[in-house]
Amino acid sequence: ITKMRRLVLTAVGHQEAEHRFHKLLSCLSHPPSYTCVRASTHLMCSSSAEEVSVQILPHPRIADVLILPVEGPRPVKQLSSEVVVGAQCGSAVLRGAHVFAPGILGSPKYMKAGDLVSVFSDLEGRCTRGATSFQGKKVFVGNGVAEMDRSTIFCTDEPARGIGIRMVEPLYRSPSFDGVLPSLVFLQNLPSVVVGHVLGPRPGERILDMCAAPGGKTCHIAALMGDQGEVVALDRIRNKIDRIRQNAQMLHLQSVQAHCFNSTQAVSSDPAQETEGPPFPPESFDRVLLDAPCSGLGQRPNMGSTWSLKEICSYQPLQRKLFHAAVRLLKKGGVLVYSTCTVTLAENEEQVAWALDTFPCLSLQPQEPHIGAEGMPGAGLPPEQLRLLQRFSPELSWEQTETTAPLPCRADSDTIGFFIAKFLKN
Asked: What are the catalytic residues (predicted)?
């Protein structure tokens, strides 16, 4: 947090910086006030759907985005029976999920299926698995009904699977998409959808997504191309490649080619190499998306970060290795988009300044759509370059979020923390 604070408090004055930092911590602990859904515009079909009670609004500027209001925080009464879940599971509950059995850390000693329980998120990761009570730092996320006995969750040879607690009174009520039109709508944070549009893929192009899992941006790129061309998706973890392929199959996309490969090594030393998969000869791609591994400090809700300073600082060298590969793989005249879901200056604006200094062939380009704020001062970039960057900073409009302003008016600012830079290779 100290490192994060120093990076956020740049060039805006001490008093304003302190105020902004505390707003950032506050808004990161809450989910956005809406759910963002990307429509599969590449599928030309009609379907009938039952009437639903939830309000659905089109995004005013992005044609393939629908936004659905989230209700909360709601006045939910806490119960005496408490179930403790991990922080990641607790964050998912705040975004509308039920509690799956692997996320449960502790429960009442005699909990049976059908019991009504309150669910708490362990903020510091200190609850021992199988605990019957927990007095550590925790936060209430809602009430639910146990779907399993305690013995089924903790006392079996095989890890329990499936829903452990079905949420009936969540603190934040989000629309459920379980099994609803799986090929036609895709849950995706708004800035992640913006990335695909900024990249600007065109039918027939060959495009590389360097760190692609779980494949939301990959599939969006393929959809924007009308599924005409080739989208190469790389990720170094094999089971994540399976997830990319499953998403592409679910969305009926034929142009996605997923490979298990370390993108830092994706440039072939043999320019004459003629293989379908990686590594690839230099200048093989029309466009490259580098949605880089990062500290993830912009994710919402994030009620308790367990990152150490060493971990947060470890991402910058990896991001630069990936940048080197991306520039070499991009054709002259091609587009490179760099993005992260974090808020640190070191992983965002400082990386842009480094890239412009290291690669004279790169120049910053305007972004369309540009619905976030401009870049943050402090990395030595002039104002005209900061205006070309796109930083989603939800803390800047946190007071507005808590008012009754119409949802479409605040959808562009009440997002996760995110950063986008667009380059042209001259």
From this structure: 341 (nucleophile)
Q: What is the pLDDT of residue 402?
A: 57
**Judgement on whether residues 200 and 251 belong to the same structural domain of the protein:** yes
Residues with catalytic function? 341
Q: Is the pLDDT of residue 28 over 90?
A: no
Q: What burial letters (b/e) apply to 384-399, b meaning 16+ CB within 10 Å?
A: ebbebbbbbbbbbbbe
Annotated binding site for S-adenosyl-L-methionine: 211-217, 235, 270, 291
CA dihedral sign of residues 257, 259, 262, 266: negative
Predicted model pTM: 0.89
- Cβ-based burial of 232 (10 A; exposed 0-12, middle 13-18, buried ≥19): buried
pLDDT for the residue 255: 97
The more confidently predicted of residues 243 and 52 is: 243
User: 293, 274, 292: which is closest to 284 by C-alpha?
Assistant: 274
Residues of the chain with pLDDT > 70, as a percent, come to 88
Helix (H) or strand (E) holding 206: strand 206-209
**CATH at residue 153:** 2.30.130.10
Q: Structural domain of residue 340, as residue ranges?
A: 185-425
Rounded to whole angstroms, the Cα distance separating 346 from 45 reads 45
- Enter the DSSP assignment of 117: E
